Amino acid sequence: MTSWVGLSAAEIAAAVREKRATPREVVAEHLARIERLDSRIGAFRTVRAEAALAEADEVAARPDLAELPLAGVPVAVKDNLPVRGESTLLGSAATPDAPAADDHVTVARLRAAGAVVVGLTNVPELCVFGTTEGVHGTARNPWDTSRTAGGSSGGSAAAVAAGMVPIALGNDGMGSLRIPAANCGLVTIKPGHGVVPAGIGDGDWFGMSENGPLATTVRDARLMLAVLAHSEVARRTEDAVRTIAVSVRSPLAGVAVSRPYAGAVREAAQLLAGAGHRVRRADPPYPMSLGVTAVRHWTAGTAVDAVGLDPRRLTRRTRVHAAVGRRFVDGVRTGAGRERLRERLEPFFAEHDVLLTPALARRSPRAVPWHERGWLRNVLANSAYSPMTPPWNLTGWPAMAVPFGTLPSGAPCAVQLVGRPGSEAALLDLAEQIERSRPWRRTADPELG
After folding, report:
1. Among 3.20.20.70, 3.40.50.360, 3.90.1300.10, 3.30.300.30, what is the CATH number of 9-437?
2. Counting CB atoms within 10 angstroms of each CB, which of 83, 111, 247, 282 has the fewest?
3. pTM for the full predicted model
4. Residue-wise over 391-428: b if at least 16 C-beta within 10 A, else e?
5. Where are the domains of the chain?
6. What pLDDT, in 10s, does the model give residues 163-201?
7. Which of 8, 92, 152, 247 is catalytic?
């Protein structure tokens, strides 16, 4: 008997289209794995077991089954995107517990492609921080359950890494796809602004937040991005020689990159040079003020999202974050700071097609109740381990996390690929070259840990 757990979304969809599997048996097997493992992992805020099986049967009955790119594929959705009939709680006790009347457009596109939503995944409150814990649970890294899965798409990343679903939907406002993907050994791409519909919270954190895929293979990331974008943005391009800048410099002054992450970048650079690309050491001209700009945008986004919520039901770190951000909302809303950063970095990307950096600066923090700790302690912990991602939300340019090697603990390591607007396909092509040359273990087995 074929086990569908651990297979890619592309493999599952092909089997369903060819009638080698039914959506119900695929979904049922993944639901059984969720039931068995999630008490240890904390990926899901809610599981839609009965509804998912009914929807799997609806997919099986569709007359266009043979044409569905995600036929019968179980998918998890981050709990800040509406799923019809389910509440959207954003990791908080302050948000209304009312069912959504309609699917978010990205969820609707996944369902139209044949995917089945099995549950909504845990997030930190209002999706603010780079660790995932709170009143609805703690999302742990399936490769090392003593560590956080990352945030804010931590539950979605943990679900995929533990084999509870082959793909998941998340989003990224300051690194919230790339951070947990890097921790959990997954492939993700934060698309450039406007490629995939956003509609995340009240204003998409001033246009910085983007929806995107979490997957175990580049092929699955490409497939899911194509569905989300409803376009050929992810389509393979002809093999081309790229000019790749390699940098291990942290964008934030005073934050150093640890040896394992710097070493992964140097090895990946050698690999890409061996594949024929023009690879050179070059640091982007990050401004000294970048850290201040990032904090202003980060806190201001939370200030907007917290409007109308009872502050007494928010955790202290979220209340402080929002209070700090309120003074910056008007200035951030103009977009002037982001435009200055784009103007500063555009000449660098006119000279280089792609930037290769570490995905993180160091391994993720321990999976402890960060939501019960002070605001400054959370901000410092987040900044120390994940300084590499925010610049590319501020610019609105595409960026990927790609697994590469392992940390001394045995958990995955990762690199980041960044490109100019419209370079999603080129980034995926490079990631695919890395995957072919240095394949990674795709699924953790928490049952052995």
Report:
1. 3.90.1300.10
2. 282
3. 0.98
4. bbbbbbbbbbbbbbbbbeeebbbbbbbbbbbebbbbbb
5. 9-437
6. 999 999 999 999 999 999 999 999 999 999 999 999 998
7. 152
